[in-house]
Amino acid sequence: MTNAEDYRCPGYLNLNGRYRDTLISESTILSTGALSLSTNAIDCFGDNITIYYSDGVYTDDGYTNYNLSGYDNYWAKIGDIVKFYGCDVRNDDLVFVPVGSFDKESAVVRMVQCISAVESFVLSQAKMNK
Questions:
Q1: Element (H, E) at 125
Q2: What is the pLDDT of residue 62?
Q3: For the chain, how big is the Rg over CA atoms in Å?
Q4: Out of 25, 41, 58, 69, which could bridge 96 as a Cys pair, Cβ 3.0 to 4.6 Å?
């Protein structure tokens, strides 16, 4: 099992001289054993993007699809975007399965980039086709 502290990477020094994490704001082990990684990145609603990790798989747990409900015709067109970031769609979840020695921070960045790109694409397509 992955320890929540494995995701605390040093960032920039704040004014008090203590380290603060530049990407992960909070990491919590859930009752299911999954690790919840709340990031400082925001989604299309201004909420922090949270990535979940369990059994070697990173996922958004379906939140991106939920946030974009009502845009199903655009959601169906995200395949190329998701593949660009090395991710996949499984049961409406965006997922990333690292291969080889992919480091943890890069996996979280990859998921955040994928989520942001999918949201931007879907919302811009909807706006252009009004």
A1: helix 104-128
A2: 93
A3: 15
A4: 58
Half-sphere exposure of 37 (CA within 13 A, CB side): 30
- List the structure tokens of 120: 């931007």
Q: Which tokens is 29 given?
A: 């082990």
Residue 53: partners with Cβ closer than 8 Å, 6 or more residues away: 2, 34, 35, 37, 59
- The residue ranges of every structural domain in the chain are 4-128
Give the contacts of 66 (CB within 8 A, at least 6 positions apart): none
**Structure pTM?**
0.82
Span 65-114, pLDDT tens digits: 998 988 888 888 999 999 999 999 999 999 999 987 767 778 999 999 99
Q: Which residue has the tokens 């959601």?
A: 75
User: How far apart are the C-alpha atoms of 3 and 6, rounded to whole Å?
Assistant: 5
Contacts (Cβ under 8 Å, ≥6 apart) of 81: 114, 117, 118, 121
Q: What single-letter DSSP state applies at residue 55? A: T
**In the chain, what percentage of residues exceed pLDDT 70?**
83
